[in-house]
Amino acid sequence: MSSRAPFALEIQAFEAGSPPPHALSIDLGDRSYPIHIGQLDWLGCLAEAQLGGRLAVVISNPVVAPLYSSRLISALRTRFAAVELHVAPDGEVAKEWSSLQAILGKLADLGADRDVVLFALGGGVIGDLTGFAAAIYMRGVCFVQVPTTLLAQVDSSVGGKTGINLPQGKNLVGAFHQPQAVWADLDVLGTLPAREYSAGLAEVIKYGPVADPAFFAWLERNMDALMARDHTALMTAVRRACEIKAAVVAADEREGGVRAILNFGHTFGHALEAGLGYGALLHGEAVALGMLMATELSVRALGLDSQLLQRLKSLLERAQLPVRAPYLDPERFLQLMRGDKKAAAGSIRYVLIPVLGQACLQVAPDALALEAIASHSASVTK
Ligand SMILES: NC(=O)c1ccc[n+]([C@@H]2O[C@H](COP(=O)([O-])OP(=O)(O)OC[C@H]3O[C@@H](n4cnc5c(N)ncnc54)[C@H](O)[C@@H]3O)[C@@H](O)[C@H]2O)c1
Ligand SMILES: O=C(O)C(=O)C[C@@H](O)[C@H](O)[C@H](O)COP(=O)(O)O
Ligand SMILES: [Zn+2]
User: What residue numbers bound the domain in which 208 lies?
Assistant: First the structure.
């Protein structure tokens, strides 16, 4: 098997000790935008973004809207003549055509023109759905990400990947469309259920193996504080995750190369999500399992030191994430992975780890991939 060179990535060194500034910026030329992190004043963020006008539409869901929409709507009323709320269904199942159509229909019914601004108030599902609606309504309108899950704050709200699922695979329909700003208010995480919080930690952990050994070691030292939702630890983790994601996206917005490293664990994970039925596993849980499988494959195919596999497994366990996948028929698993967007010329390309902190995109024999899957899966349907 030919071995690919790891992607090169330049990121600022990780400094856990220094007090983090509360706003980052993602450098995309005239489409650059701020990522605000911390205890936020949404009015101030809005003023800084210089957003205002005739109509703002908040897109949320039945869980998040009762918690946070009135606070957001009050802030928006100071700068928009009209503010409307649209409540999409909750959960992964909402990332589909009917939810998208309902948003687009609502915008048209409201008489929204190209100056409308959408606000995605929710987790990654609401962010992906709202972003896609913003990308295609009147061929593109502005939107702001107001992420309310840990996963959305550390990953999905940044970088402009938007879209919906098909039964055949995750995120198979979508667009790259960058938001105007990201407002990651750590206070809203107080109401997040424990299982969802853990799912977010999976995407935090992801950044270590592919880009940042020092951050990985910091996570090992600070997982207990993170599990206790300690504010300082959380601030450091969210900020570092966004810093890495912003650097990767700025280097390769449309995933022609290095951006693929953010897909570590996702070839396996997305297959689990689609194969078991959307919502059976949370996205972060599927990514946790996928990272174990991809690391196992890296050991078997690239000779990665198996110590990393043990370290990763132990960190995932401490984050209360699953480390054994439910059974999925191996042929179905492979079939779903062949539909992954990174596949080329009929071959599945995996994000693998030749050495801690570096990643490459690599074809591997199906037999090895099946061994990696079997090593971290239940052997039969329960
Ligand atoms: N675009 C990207 O770059 C990107 C990156 C990672 C993941 N994703 C996508 O994100 C989705 C997963 O996102 P998620 O994990 O945020 O799931 P989610 O959006 O379904 O939110 C998880 C659950 O938490 C609830 N919730 C949200 N905020 C809450 C709060 N503050 N308090 C109480 N409950 C709250 C939601 O209603 C939901 O039930 C997947 O579809 C995944 O494919 C996209
Ligand atoms: O931003 C990216 O790039 C990512 O790959 C982040 C992933 O965590 C995320 O789940 C993303 O939605 C996956 O994208 P896809 O292109 O594999 O559908
Ligand atoms: Zn993901």
Answer: 196-375
Q: Are residues 227 and 283 in the same domain?
A: yes
Rounded distance between C-alpha atoms, residue 284 and residue 155, angstroms: 11
Q: pTM value?
A: 0.97
Q: Do 186 and 213 belong to one domain?
A: no
Of 44-48, 130-134, 313-317, 348-352, the poorest mean pLDDT is in: 44-48
Mutation probe of ligand 2 site: the residue of 206, 266, 289 with most atoms within 8 A of C-beta = 266
Q: Is residue 204 part of a domain?
A: yes
The Cα 370–Cα 216 span in angstroms is 27
**Which tens digits make up the pLDDT trace of 45-90?**
999 999 999 999 999 999 999 999 999 999 999 999 999 999 999 9
DSSP characters over 13-46: PP-SSSPPPSEEEE--GGG-EEEEEES--HHHHH
Q: Which is the catalytic residue, given 253, 255, 285, 296?
A: 255
> Of 191, 215, 238, which closes a domain?
191
Last residue of a domain, one of 157, 173, 191: 191
Cα(286) to centroid(ligand 3), Å:
9
Same domain, 170 and 91: yes
**Confidence band of 380 (pLDDT split at 50, 70, 90):** confident
In angstroms, the CA 82 to CA 42 distance is 17
* 235 and 249 together in one domain: yes
Domains: count for the chain = 2
Clarify whether 263 is annotated catalytic.
yes
C-alpha closest to that of 73 among 62, 86, 84, 61: 84
Q: Are residues 203 and 119 in the same domain?
A: no
pLDDT for position 16 = 78
Q: For the segment 269-289, what is each residue's pLDDT rounded down to a tens digit? A: 999 999 999 999 999 999 999
Residues forming a β-bridge with 118:
57, 143
Residue 15 forms part of a structural domain? no
Q: Considering 171, 206, 263, 313, which one is annotated as catalytic? A: 263
125 lines ligand 1 (CB under 6 A): yes
